[in-house]
Each structure stands twice: as C-alpha cells, then as structure tokens.
C-alpha cells in the first residue's frame, strides 16, 4: 500500500464528500482519506493534519472557503468543548439525511449486497429535537474550590462544566444543578481522581416523562456519605417530584459509571414510566430507552412489521426491562425474552405482572446461550426480535437463528456497522424487506434502525 502523502502539521485544501460514523467530514487528499471533525458535506476547507496514520489522516479546520448551505450556528455554548453532541452545526433535516447515508455507507463497506436491492427508507425524526434525554449522568468535580457538574471533554479527561444541557430533559438539569449546589453548601467531599479520594463522583438523574417521577442516584467512592440526612431532606423539600433517592458505590478507577452495589436512601426504590400503554418500574441500573417518544415510534414500526394474528411465538433477545416484548404480548401467543443484567430481568417480570400480562417469560443469561437451550427443549419461535448492544449479535446467536426457520427476524440496531455485518450472515436464509432508520439521538452521530427480514421461501 502506498504511503500516506500527508505529513504532521501540513496544511492543504480539501473538499468534503460525506459525513462519517462519528459525525466527522470525510475528504480525500491525493487519494488518501482525511477525517475532519466539524466539516460538512460539500464544504471546501483548508485543514491542518493533527494525526497522520499510514492509512488515514485526522485534521482540523483552519478555514472554510466554501460553506455548506446547511451549516447552522450550534445553540449550545460548550458545544465544541463538550463532545456530547457532534452535529449541532448541521441543520436538523440534513442530519436525518446524513443518518440514512450512514446506513448506506455501512452496507457498502461491510456487505456484498447491491444497494439498489435494499430498500432503505427515510429517517424518522423528531418534531422538536431538543430536551429529549430522560436520563443524565454528570460527573462531579471541584474546580477552583467550586463544585462543578458536567461531562468530560471530547478526547480528554478534563471536566467541561455544563449549566444547561439543551438535549437533556429540563427536569434532569434542574435536579443535577440543585444537588450540585447542595453538595457545595453542605461541604460534602467531592471525588478527586488523581488521589482517588473524596466521595461523590457522579450525579445520575432519570425522569419519567409521562409520570413526572424523578430518581436521583448519587454514585460515591465509598459507602459512607457525610450529611446524608440533611442532603436527602433538602432535596425532598425543594423538588418533591424526586420520589426515589439511591446511592451506588463505585470504588474502581474506571470510566464506567456504576459499581455493583446500590443502596436505597429514601422514597421508592424504583420510579415508574409509561411506554405505549404499559407501565415500567425502573431500578437505578436498569437500561431504559433514553428518548421515550422516539422509542414509541420505534415500537410502532416493529409492531407494524410483525403483523400478529394472536398465534405467534416471539423471542425478544437482549430484552432489557421487557419493553419490546411486553408491547407485543397482547397480540401474540407467547413472548420469551433474555438479558444479561439480573435487575433488568427482575424488572421485566415485575412489569409483566403489574400489567397483568401472563404469556411472557423472561430469563437472565446471554442470548447466545439461553436461546439454543429453548430451541433444544422444543420451543419454535415465529418471530425473533434482536436489539443488541453496539457490538452487534454474537455469531453463535446468528447461527442459532438460522437453524430455527423462524418466519421473520426483526433487527433493532444502534450501530450500522455491526448491523451490516450481521444481516450479511442472516441473508443466507432471509430476505431483507427494508431498513427503517430512526433518529433516537438528535444532534449526535448515532442512528437507530429497524431491519425487517423474512424467511426465504
């Protein structure tokens, strides 16, 4: 392979051809690929090489010679420093087109399909793409003797203080800021990373958008929490909607938010949220969709595709707290789900009980282990729904699916690359009817999608 023609620090002109999976502009200099954060399709820019690899270059914009007509001013004051969003500088209708293109790029790169054979629909967006995130996880640190909350900057471990995150639901911002101020006022020790000392590391807030219930989780570096009673009383007095206060202990030097142990401090242990018409109880560590209004659109897409008659057996792999399976149970004969997090399965079973749904079974374990066990015991599913994490499905699960002869597979994906890889494997026995992209996280480079696959006759 020819060497990269670019040298470190070199400045050169570039035309941006498309946007990549991290929201960065992609261009080519002497046939070598260049990634430029913040650049948009069609723009002519002058860039400076910041990192030169044999196969690609990372660069930053020095000057925009020709600006995209879709470039807008990002409304967030810390947009550049924070890195939580990647696309606030791109007009929202264009973000939706770009997300469809991310799926097109993944199909081109990771499969042998011809694009014209695959029906990739237009992205389903939001009417109001702001204030949608129902859960926030803000780090707490002391900067110049002031307690600050925020996120670590893009590619750094420096805290970017955030007073108002405009993609977060306003309730999560209100509670985070109040707790931050109380921690300072009550002089509760704040975590100090270098010395691994201090106590409060992270403030996690989750709000039930339909129920108005709020849960506060304080992630701490030890079991003890000084002035705990005063803190709890002040929070409950000032924001009565906070109906659950929990403490999670994480003593590991890690970027993972939660530790294994969670303690109940005040109020209820779980909060309630509604999705479609079903109520869900959510414990502190349970995974739940971060954008409920878009999630309902997603489930409508799934339900529309499944076309249930009442006789079907459904598998909901990677089921979390049972959201997809429970939304379909009333129209199916039987639903079975599995997930690796035991608390999620406990919640899923409780949620089923509470809704009076009796034709569901949820089991703790890896999909690739539980699923073959069910098949061996004689369970024959008609529809298999997979909603895997970013790494996609384990190959052993795909092989099990191929053996079942289920009429339909519905693949809910949050990562176009692993989706493309997995549907290439499933294509041995399944036709791809269509892929429906959906914007679950406006202003970020994430794209969710639902792929409908039917058994080849």
Automatic annotation (TrEMBL):
Similarity annotation: Belongs to the class I-like SAM-binding methyltransferase superfamily. RNA M5U methyltransferase family.
Catalytic residues as annotated in Swiss-Prot or TrEMBL: 414, 414 (nucleophile)
GO biological process terms on file: rRNA base methylation
InterPro entries in the record: MeTrfase_TrmA_AS, MeTrfase_TrmA_CS, NA-bd_OB-fold, SAM-dependent_MTases_sf, TRAM_dom, U5_MeTrfase_fam
UniProt name for this protein: RNA methyltransferase
Database matches in SUPFAM superfamilies: Nucleic acid-binding proteins (SSF50249), S-adenosyl-L-methionine-dependent methyltransferases (SSF53335)
Alphabetic keyword roster: 4Fe-4S, Iron, Iron-sulfur, Metal-binding, Methyltransferase, S-adenosyl-L-methionine, Transferase
Residue ranges occupied by any TRAM domain in the UniProt entry: 5-63
GO molecular function: 4 iron, 4 sulfur cluster binding; rRNA (uridine-C5-)-methyltransferase activity
Superkingdom to which the source organism belongs: Bacteria
Residues where S-adenosyl-L-methionine binds: 289, 318, 339, 387
Pfam annotation, one family: TRAM
């Amino acid at each position: 392979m020819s060497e990269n023609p670019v040298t470190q620090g070199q400045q050169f002109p570039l035309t941006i051809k498309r946007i990549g999976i991290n929201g960065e502009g992609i261009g080519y200099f002497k046939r070598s690929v260049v990634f430029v954060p913040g650049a948009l399709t069609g723009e002519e820019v002058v860039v400076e090489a910041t990192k030169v690899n044999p196969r690609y270059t990372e660069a930053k914009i020095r000057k925009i010679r020709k600006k995209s007509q879709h470039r807008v001013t990002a409304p967030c004051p810390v947009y550049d420093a924070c890195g939580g969003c990647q696309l606030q500088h791109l007009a929202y209708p264009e973000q939706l087109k770009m997300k469809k293109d991310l799926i097109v790029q993944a199909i081109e790169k990771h499969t042998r399909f011809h694009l014209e054979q695959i029906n990739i629909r237009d992205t389903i967006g939001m009417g109001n793409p702001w204030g949608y995130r129902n859960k926030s996880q803000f780090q707490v640190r002391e900067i110049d003797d002031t307690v600050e909350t925020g996120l670590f900057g893009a590619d750094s471990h420096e805290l970017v203080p955030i007073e108002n995150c405009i993609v977060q639901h306003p309730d999560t911002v209100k509670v985070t800021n109040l707790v931050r101020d109380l921690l300072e006022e009550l002089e509760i020790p704040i975590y100090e990373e270098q010395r691994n000392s201090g106590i409060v590391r992270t403030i996690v807030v989750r709000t039930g958008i339909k129920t108005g219930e709020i849960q506060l989780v304080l992630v701490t570096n030890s079991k003890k929490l000084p002035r705990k009673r005063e803190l709890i009383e002040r929070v409950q007095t000032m924001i009565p909607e906070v109906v659950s206060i929990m403490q999670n202990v994480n003593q590991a030097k890690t970027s993972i938010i939660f530790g294994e142990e969670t303690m109940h401090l005040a109020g209820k242990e779980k909060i309630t949220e509604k999705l479609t018409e079903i109520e869900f109880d959510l414990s502190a560590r349970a995974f739940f969709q971060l954008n409920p209004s878009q999630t309902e659109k997603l489930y409508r897409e799934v339900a529309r595709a499944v076309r249930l008659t009442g006789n079907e057996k459904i598998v909901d792999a990677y089921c979390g707290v049972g959201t997809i399976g429970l939304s379909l149970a009333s129209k199916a004969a039987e639903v079975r789900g599995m997930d690796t997090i035991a608390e999620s399965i406990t919640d899923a079973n409780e949620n089923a009980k509470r809704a009076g749904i009796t034709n569901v079974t949820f089991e703790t374990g890896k999909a690739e282990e539980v699923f073959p066990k069910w098949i061996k015991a004689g369970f024959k599913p008609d529809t298999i729904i997979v909603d895997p994490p970013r790494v996609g499905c384990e190959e052993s699960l795909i092989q099990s699916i191929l053996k079942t002869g289920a009429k339909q597979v519905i693949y809910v994906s949050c990562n176009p690359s692993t989706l493309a890889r997995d549907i290439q494997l499933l294509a041995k026995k399944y036709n791809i009817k269509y892929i429906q992209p959906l914007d679950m996280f406006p202003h970020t480079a994430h794209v969710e999608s639902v792929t409908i696959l039917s058994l080849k006759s």
